Amino acid sequence: MAVKLESTQFKIWKEKGKTSDEFFKMLRLDTDQSIDTLKSPGLVSWFSYVKKISENPTEVLYRKLEIRFSDAEILKMFFAGRKDGTLKFSLGPMVRLIKGNWLGQKKTAEDVFTDLSLHKDGINFFENPILVTWFTYVKIMHQEEADNVMSSVMTKYYDDETVKKMVTHSSITGNLKATATQVVSELWLREGMSAHEAFKVLRLSGKGDNALSDPAFGTWVSYFNKLQRKKMNQDEYAIIAELSKHFDNDLNLARALKAAKTKLQSKSWIPRELKKYQDPRAVPAALSSINYPGAEISMDSTASPRQQLDGQSTRLRSPIIRPIHADTCAIELDTKLPRRCNWSIESFREVDIGSLPWLGWLFIYAFVQFYFSISRCLALKALVIMHGSATDYTAFVKISALSLGFFEDFVCTTYFATALWISDTLKQIVVERYGSTSGLRLDIAGKIATFTVSWVLFMAMMAPFVADMMLVVYRDMRFSFRLLASLIKEREYLKAAPISTDEVQTAYVTAGYLFVIASLFAIVRVWAKWADLTLWNPTQIVLNPVNNSTIGKLSKRGAGGVKYDALGRETSTTRYQVVRVAVVITGLVLLPGIAVAVRSACSPLVAYAALNVTLNELLLHMFEPAPMEVKLANLIENLPWVEEFIDKAEEHERFGDDTLFRRTTGFKGELAFNISIDNDNPPNVLIIGVESFRYRDSRYLVGEEDPSNLFKGSNLTITPNFDRWAKRGVALRNIWSSIPTSRSLESVLYAQVPYHSNTETGITGGKRNTKLSGLPQLFSEKGYETYFTTGSTLGFDNWDTFLPSHGFDNVWDADKMKRMAENNFNIRSQDWDNDEHRGFSWGAHDDLSFRLLGDFLLENRAKQVERARQGEPKVPMFVTHYTISSHEPYDSLPKWYEESEKPDFSAMYEGEQHADRIKRYMNARYFTDTELGKFMDRMHNQGFLHDTIVVIFGDHGQAPEVDKFNLHEESATRVPAAIIAEGRLGNAVGLVLNDVAEQYDLLNTLADITGLPKGGFQQNGVGRSLKRKASSKKHVVYSNDPLRKMAIVRGHERLRYDEITDSMMLHDTETDFHMTTDLLPLLKPEERAEWEALREDGRRITAYFKKRWDENCLLAVQCESLS
Known about the structure:
Layout: H1 2-16, H2 20-26, H3 42-52, H4 57-68, H5 71-84, H6 92-104, H7 109-115, H8 131-142, H9 146-157, H10 160-169, H11 176-191, H12 195-201, H13 216-229, H14 238-244, H15 250-264, H16 272-275, H17 282-287, H18 305-310, E1 320-324, H19 326-334, H20 345-349, H21 359-387, H22 395-438, H23 440-475, H24 481-489, H25 501-527, H26 539-542, E2 553-557, E3 563-567, H27 569-601, H28 604-609, H29 613-618, H30 628-635, E4 650-654, E5 662-667, E6 684-690, H31 699-702, H32 720-726, E7 730-736, H33 741-750, H34 775-781, E8 785-790, H35 799-805, E9 810-812, H36 814-824, E10 839-840, E11 843-844, H37 846-869, E12 877-882, H38 895-898, H39 906-909, H40 915-941, E13 948-954, H41 969-973, E14 974-980, E15 992-993, E16 997-998, H42 1002-1010, E17 1017-1019, E18 1036-1038, E19 1046-1050, E20 1053-1057, E21 1064-1068, H43 1085-1110
Parallel strand pairs: 6-12, 6-13, 7-15, 7-16, 8-9, 8-12
Antiparallel strand pairs: 1-3, 2-3, 4-5, 5-17, 7-14, 10-11, 13-14, 18-19, 19-20, 20-21
Helix pairs in contact: 8-9, 9-11, 11-13, 21-22, 21-23, 22-23, 22-27, 23-25, 30-43, 32-40, 37-40
């Protein structure tokens, strides 16, 4: 009822606008001059009302009290009220307010010391409750130097004798203890007090067995540790040696340890340095390792242990003999170590977590493993689907991948923690050596070094892992340092890469998170003293000679029934070092070896899903499943296996059983079409690779039925000019490629299954010294001039080095095209990059390159005609031309074209997720097709085509409909092609070939059409001649994408498979363009086995070419590694 009335009264006052000052005066609190103001019963009501009117009661009260009282008096009021229970509100806000006021006034530590009258407390100094306020203020002001500042202020007002009396007079407890201990230690260090003197000052020397359980003992241990850290060579047994000076014999020290253990149990402030000695049985072992100057071995069992110790030699080379009397044995047998399971909740609460020596290691493992695990869980599904399929995402696979991944992450974290430990150890050595002279500067430098090393190592460990997870989720790729090197090398082309805005934003956000987390980790390492890894290391888990009394222990009974304990110091130390080395080897060698063994026992799918790329790169790819090259050695036993990959229509002479290197001497078999050739007037050969030209763009090749509804019911075609010319030649509607263009080039020119890698191609680096034989070599041997022309830059993948080194006499790139266009067409240099858009990031546009190519071809043909008139032999041309304008991102076409009238392709992209991108692609595709049509029409009208065989093909496909273009695998790798030979095809004009083909078939096709050089032609390709019908309906081709999957096509069925895992999918390329139905489950066992055998063939031939490229033995019988 009273509460209700008070609440009602407050409401009325608030409505009337009564202020906190008016209420304060009404309660007559402003007239009370006594320090008992806080005990006034009206103060509680005032506090409640002030909160009611939305003011800060603590701040208002302080402003009123400071008028009449000093800060010291105000604090005394609050501490007194808290002590007797009359204080009804929290002390903390008032203390924080006062300290904030001091900071605002820029008061020094000494100013506050005197304001609080701490200089008048004398020997009761540590019993003043206000002292803790001063301590915390100084820590805020001076942070790491707080102890030094406090000790300096204290020594100014108190002499050494008074300080000693403070420590012995006061019973310091609670939050004050740790700070007081540090301050006292600093004072003693300044005056050079020894540990022995400190023991006496704290009055511990006269307390016998109770010395170690005395509260002052913790202060002594803290001081002892400070003294030890200043020594160059620290002795881990030094504390036992020092304690033994204050006890008559080992037995008394053992009893004292037992008493401390019994009375204190597991109190958190028991010095951790002594916990390992709480079993009295360990004391003799520890003492046996201590050197005592001028000692000799004594076998007198009647002498005291101390006397025996005093007589032992410092150059001990034989076991130390020490008598153990019956009462000592009784203590040993009676003493039991506390059982951990008997810890009570209260005793657990009293544990000082920060004092645990291994806490820094625990923090690192917990922090890093947590971050690893979160990242793994977020990317796990994408990982499994990438290396397998959605059906593989089962509970077993998830648990297995996460378990193995956790193991690999643990190994990675171990290397990380070891690197940090080495850094901390080196820093400690520097501090010990130079700390006494450099002081504060070295301390600051040490903190900077700790932060920098921690941050850099964390980023070095996590950045590859996080990048890998992002690449998996967004790009179906895995990170590697090779990939990074490739990106750095080709960085100038990244701006034209198909990277979406979402991907860029996600990359920035993820990088930001990683930066913050790395910084947080580094700050903790700097800020937290327990994060110093030199406090403990894992070698201390297994064995320590001071707590293992069985090391080197020999027992015998001497005269008088005395039992002697013989402990070999050198033996124990040696064994300890051996065990430490064993622990290191276990963590850094054996543990990774076990992880590799576990990985080998898992399926490739689990191994890939669990892969820690940072660890994998560090240990040279040991955690990846076995690569294809390993399987090749097991498959080449069925000689001659290479015949399986040479078409039966090709007549040839092999140079060995394990090589495709051979001499092709002719072709045989039923013709699919024929092109008439006059050997006395060999035709020119022109092959045109159209950038990103996909099968589904040609309505002529897709057909009116459009079984996969690629044209959405419309009658549109994006490539009317290609379709028009394909109808005048032989169209190839089932031809496949590899991606990207560099890999396509390997197939087109050299008839190879391209080099299988997601970071480089066979062309990468230029391969100046690699011997190759393909189309340029074929036509060179036949007397042709060879040209390679393009409007594109050729720096990417070092085409500018590769092409002139492998058969092309003349190479035109974007720079040459631009110079010629400026000279011939009056193009201004600024027009390449200004609003005219005559060029873009990849080079000069196709309208100019086709015009320049046409001019050149017509000029050369005129020369050929002139030579013929003069009776000289014809010098035909072999020209390879690649377009570029339809390269991603399709956002820069010539201004004149953008302003021209174009067909409306909206029916093809309306309603699509990426409608704008599809529109840009179709616009670019139509532009290139238009320029191709103009070029072909011009060549036809000028008579050039009647003397030339033209092959037009897409270098690879594209899929602007999706974020990751290779998700639409058929869009990316199925391309259109046509062979045009005006006046030479006879009734084959308009023929559409449905037989499966690959770009690597063009070499044998053109060799069969134009004829072989005299004596044949050396090559190592796998293609067949499309001029002839396939020798078997089960003929297959290999079309791979290293960034996604490998594939085999037979007829209109395509098997998609992984290079290592068992994941496979079979789909119909005509009716299931988007791969929605897997046909494998519908097959009979023998049919599935047939496809699995074909899969192994695909892996085998891919591995063959990769090995031959790597060892530069493509045109060799054997590679050196097999010889």
